[in-house]
Amino acid sequence: MLQQEDILWKGVLEEVFEDFIRFLYPEANKVFDFTRGITFLDKELEQLYTDENNRYSPRLADKLAKVYTLDGKEEWILIHVEVQGTFKKDFALRMFTYYYRIFDKYQRRISACAILTEPVLKPRSDTYRQEFMGTKICYQFNVYKIAEQGEAELRASDNLFALAVLIAKSKFLGKNISDSAERDQLLLSFKRELLRELNQRSIPAAKIRVLMAFLKDYVHFENEKNEKIFNNEIQKAKTMDIEEFLKECSRIEGVRVGLQRGIKKGMKMGIRKVEERLTNRLLTSTNYSQEKIAELLNVPLSFVESVHGQMKKVKN
Hints:
Elements: H1 2-15, H2 17-24, E1 39-40, H3 42-47, E2 63-68, E3 74-82, H4 91-106, E4 110-116, E5 127-132, E6 135-140, E7 142-145, H5 151-156, H6 160-169, H7 180-200, H8 205-217, H9 224-260, H10 267-285, H11 290-297, H12 301-315
Parallel strand pairs: 3-4, 4-7
Antiparallel strand pairs: 1-2, 2-3, 5-6
Helix pairs in contact: 1-8, 7-8, 7-9, 9-10, 10-11, 10-12, 11-12
């Protein structure tokens, strides 16, 4: 079970890492240059722990990422996901071990954050201290505790990582309910609400894919029947999204045919708007290259590049 949770967290963090940074650091846009991309340094992290018996070896979900600041500097961010149900007393020491090994080998400034998924509200230390005969170490890191986050605030956020946190919080549902059928019903209602939220937002294809996988598999129903019901609803949601896109493509092709038959020239303006909308949709919801999008929509590559440029201006 822990291995599966690690895999799910790994997928979420890799796809919504930029959202995660913006979520934890509201001023991120004033610090980071996200246009230069994010590079995950998984090999660098693994190379620090060659001893199989090392109790501080990184988990699958742990991420070390290279980002760039607006002034061109390269910075590293360490994310440690503690998916174990019980808190380890040596946790702060483990975080310090991660830090000094990375710093010792790569000499990089590091911002570290631990995501705690345990269901209890008990506060956890964000500091490792050691002192002896005038020598002192005080290492402080960021701690983000899933159980402490308010559901209302998460639902109000337009950040995708907030949705991931809501999904993770579904694991705490029904802890005080003795009836398994009632627990399942509560979970089903909660998952349906989050599925509707995912469908209502304009989310890039890769991100929606991992978020739906997270929603589907992070917490399972006790009754297999409910598992099948919700899985069918997820598949239906995916199918509807594809059908809507195909209908839009058919519409633009129909308008083109109409123009070829001599219908009002003024409709060219309408075609261009539809082309822009479809181009925007493909740029944000698929991994297609700009050349592939131009080919699919039968528009010039320069048109796709122009729409992409406008999207970046709006985002900034």
